[in-house]
Design goal:
87 residues; mainly alpha; 6 helices; 2 strands; 7% strand; globular
């Protein structure tokens, strides 16, 4: 099973000090580059940035269908849209 995440759970669990739950529950996690950018690059110094950057169990995977991302962006932000078409 491939588990894909957007930024919300990563940031929220890091802020709560329970980022470890993701690894305990899923083992490996996949995120699109847009989520990495939102949490690590744009979120530098905020909850989740260091946790995601340091997590060897998180894989960044390219989006397979850019058209689907563009369609989803009519209702979702970039990270949420990309997370729906990874895997």
């Amino acid at each position: 099973m491939i588990v894909v995440s957007n930024s919300g759970p990563l940031i929220a669990l890091a802020a709560l000090g329970r980022f470890d739950l993701l690894a305990l529950l899923y083992g490996r996690l996949h995120i699109p580059p847009a989520v990495w950018d939102e949490v690590v690059a744009s979120g530098f110094g905020l909850p989740g940035a260091d946790e995601v950057s340091d997590a060897g169990w998180i894989d960044v995977q390219q989006v397979k269908n850019e058209t689907a991302v563009q369609i989803l962006m009519e209702r979702l932000d970039m990270g949420e849209s990309a997370a729906n078409v990874v895997g």
